[in-house]
Amino acid sequence: QVQLVESGGGLVQAGGSLRLSCAASGSIAGFNTMAWYRQAPGKQRELVATITSDGRTIYVDSVKGRFTISRDNSKNTLYLQMNSLKPEDTAVYYCNVPWVYWGQGTQVTVSS
What we know:
The chain is mainly beta.
């Protein structure tokens, strides 16, 4: 059993940046894919970005060019660098190992 703990959320003005981290209680090297999801109030949870063990990434169109997902297997940590933040990025952000594990989420609020 691996626990995922997100951190790095907060309140930021539009145009600002945040870096989310997801620390795993065990090794993430064996996870072929890891992902970030988000859920805004009143909306369904949506996939934001994924990264494979060999570094291939996929982003939802709304964050392309602004967000960067990365992973450090030596630190058992997944990251999401978020730049040029917009109010519509406001959501709870979740770390995910597909079909297996979810974190508890971290709140990101972007003010206009």
